[in-house]
């Protein structure tokens, strides 16, 4: 199994352990996702995994038109996913857990059986299946954290964060372009892993901007789960402020 697909499966398994222990009332606990309880977060993951399966199997164009219309009418990706969740919320929690679990397993099977260099269609445009798999792992990590925080559980900081950190670094041009901006020059990440090891992501050319600090905190900033000012992450160079404002791991 490719390392990124294995990481996705491991991240799903971590979330599954939390979900399988929830009481009925736990599913109704509000999360840090504004307006969403635990069940809404899991519904969103189930929906987006279904979209990723369609993307990876060449079925993007055939996704239910009522569902995709949420994207076409929305002013942002966040608004689009909110509309999708609102349309389908309220299912029994047993059905919701089964839906997410089935989709999660199928997504891993699809990625494991395909050429990950293949270009596929996604919300942000065309990207490699490997990048799509990485974004699915990153989003599962983000929302596993949302659920864990809501129900009073902590997630372990693992080496999967290296893949998420690299995704944040590699997609900076997309993040800047989405904001109508251009990078002044190459950016380097010099991060500290949970075990104290150094994780360096370096461009081919000499960087003009360098971001340094905790990989855990950088991933949280990119996930919009931590304010940069509340972390030890710092930046030097002409793009430092914009990088720490725009960096993200989802589309």
Give an account of the 3D structure.
It is a single chain. By secondary structure, the protein is α+β, with helices and mostly antiparallel strands. The chain folds into two domains: 3-156, dinb family like domain (Four Helix Bundle (Hemerythrin (Met), subunit A), Up-down Bundle), CATH 1.20.120.450; 161-246, 2-Layer Sandwich (Nonspecific Lipid-transfer Protein, Chain A). The protein is built from ten helices and six strands; from the N terminus they run H-H-H-H-H-E-E-H-H-H-E-E-E-H-E-H. The strands form two sheets. It has a four-stranded mixed sheet with strand order 4-3-5-6. A two-stranded antiparallel ribbon has the order 1-2. Strand 1 (119-122) and strand 2 (125-128) form a beta hairpin. The longest helix is centred in the middle third of the chain and has 23 residues, at 129-151. The model has no long low-confidence stretch (mean pLDDT 93).
């Amino acid at each position: 199994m490719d390392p990124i697909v294995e990481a996705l499966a491991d991240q799903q398994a971590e979330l599954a352990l939390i979900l399988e222990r929830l009481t009925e009332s736990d599913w109704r606990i509000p999360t840090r996702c504004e307006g969403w309880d635990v069940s809404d977060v899991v519904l969103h993951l189930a929906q987006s995994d279904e979209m990723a399966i369609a993307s990876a199997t060449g079925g993007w164009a055939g996704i239910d038109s009522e569902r995709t219309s949420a994207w076409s009418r929305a002013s942002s990706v966040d608004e689009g996913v909110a509309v999708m969740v609102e349309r389908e919320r309220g299912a029994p929690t047993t059905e919701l857990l089964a839906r997410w679990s089935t989709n999660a397993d199928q997504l891993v099977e699809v990625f494991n059986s395909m050429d990950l260099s293949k270009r596929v269609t996604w919300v942000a445009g065309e990207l490699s299946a490997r990048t799509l798999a990485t974004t699915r792992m990153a989003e599962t990590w983000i929302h596993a954290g949302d659920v864990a925080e809501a129900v009073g559980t902590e997630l372990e900081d693992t080496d999967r964060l290296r893949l998420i950190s690299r995704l944040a670094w590699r997609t900076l041009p997309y993040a800047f372009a989405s904001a109508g901006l251009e990078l002044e020059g190459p950016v380097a990440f010099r991060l500290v892993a949970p075990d104290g090891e150094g994780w360096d992501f370096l461009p081919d050319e000499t960087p003009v901007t360098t971001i340094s600090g905790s990989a855990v905190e950088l991933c949280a900033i990119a996930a919009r789960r931590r304010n940069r000012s509340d972390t030890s992450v710092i930046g030097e160079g002409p793009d430092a402020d914009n990088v720490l404002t725009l960096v993200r791991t989802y589309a």
